[in-house]
UniProtKB/TrEMBL annotation:
Record-annotated N-acetyltransferase domain positions: 13-166
GO molecular-function terms, A-Z: acyltransferase activity, transferring groups other than amino-acyl groups
Entry keyword annotation includes Isomerase: no
Cited PROSITE patterns: GNAT
CDD domains named in the record: NAT_SF (cd04301)
Protein known as: GNAT family N-acetyltransferase
Keywords, in A-Z order: Acyltransferase, Transferase
Amino acid sequence: MRRVGVTMARSPVTVRAAGPGDVATIRELWEGALRRAPIDEQLTDVATVVAQSAASDTQAVIVAEHDGQVAGAAFLLCSIMTPLNREPVVLVVAPHVFPSFQRRGVGTALMDAAARYAEQHGIAHLVTAAGADARDSNRFLARLAFSPVAILRVAPTATVRAKLGGRRGIAAVRLGGSSSRHIDRVLAARRGRRERVVG
């Protein structure tokens, strides 16, 4: 992605594609968005994403620099709205700014670069997310015309299974071929009963 120069509030903000030398800083910036793991594993994750993005036409890691210092970053991905809604979108993942650089136009520069990236790919919509309790971030996105569409909820699989344990009366659905065979057997048994009643 080409460097995009943006001047904000007396201080220059530029946005460029991330490189290997940015990995440690991006890991620090994205720490809350990365998987819980030792720092060296998080560094490997970020390095992988940066390398894959550099080789891809449909994803990018961008960093915003304020007076030559990395102040923010975001991951851009050409995707679709949902697996069911095939509308093309650019996902703006983890658009984060270091607290010491907030309110200096860094977030605006990142979102401007994301919009330009979408335009370059002929994509009409941007999708991003902010924490439910991140009031400043949500206000910022609302000012840019981002509307809330859904609440993303996450739970450990084991916890969900435990919570569902009291609902065993509901028919279990098995995934894969065994499910269709089970349904076929049930339907055949019902047909057999109906035929015996009619006969």
